[in-house]
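ping. complex inputs:
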Amino acid sequence: MADAVPVARSPLAHLPEAAREMRDDLAVSLRERPLLGLLNLRLDAASEAAQRVKAALGFGLPGEPNRATGEGGRSALWLGPDEYLVVTEPGGEAALARSLAEALQDRGAVTDVSDGRTAIEIAGSRARDVLATGCSLDLHPRVFRAGQCAQSGLAKARIILHQIDDRPGYRVFVERSHAEYLWLWLMDAAAEYRAAT
Amino acid sequence: MLLIPCPWCGPREEGEFAPGGEGHIRRPEPQAASDQDWAEYLYYRTNPKGLHFERWVHAAGCRRWFNVARDTVTHEIRAVYKMSENRPEGL
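pong. complex structure:
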């Protein structure tokens, strides 16, 4: 029997194309960013290994809690005092994991967790209101701005939220078993703002 | 609903946290401890009316454990400090 070849598949792939993207509206647009490369990185941020990781990534890890750094399609999100989520373009995770492992020289750990979550991008002038419907974080721009991230809950699903720009645009990383539920919930929560414009 | 200031993440709603019971409980040396000492270590808690030192974990956030000094009557959180820090004085 031939070996089964694993195929990466978005947890929303079974939804029709039209149902996976909602970009026709300026107030709120939603789309999935499937199959992003996700690496869990554990290391002491004050160590020499962190300097080598900076060279491997091309930018430094965030120095403050709940902040994100990034450049050219890659980003690093603070998850804990010694824990980060490195996000890269689809397919780039294996090579990046190798170069990070080399940079760590056993002074930390890098784990490919790409299959665990998918990302949903929500943007537009009312995106903040849609998220606020189901999230207890204070998302007011006075408190939560582009370049910040947080782990929290959205409509009871566990999420990692990353504000990527000032539209405002957000990336919501959700565990794949909750992805369809959260997508449908977001579509429903966004409906009232779509109707209004 | 409590608003708990995680030492790493700042104020977050109570639902993101899980309580871990009383803090600052020291494990006695098993060979040297009397049965009474061991029983107190395992089962006896202070259960005060008023100021209580306890542990919480930011389960839905940064997943770190930390200490909270909370008033069990008013639910006022008087102090929050990291696991590596000593009990604050003068509360």
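Chain B has one domain: 3-82.
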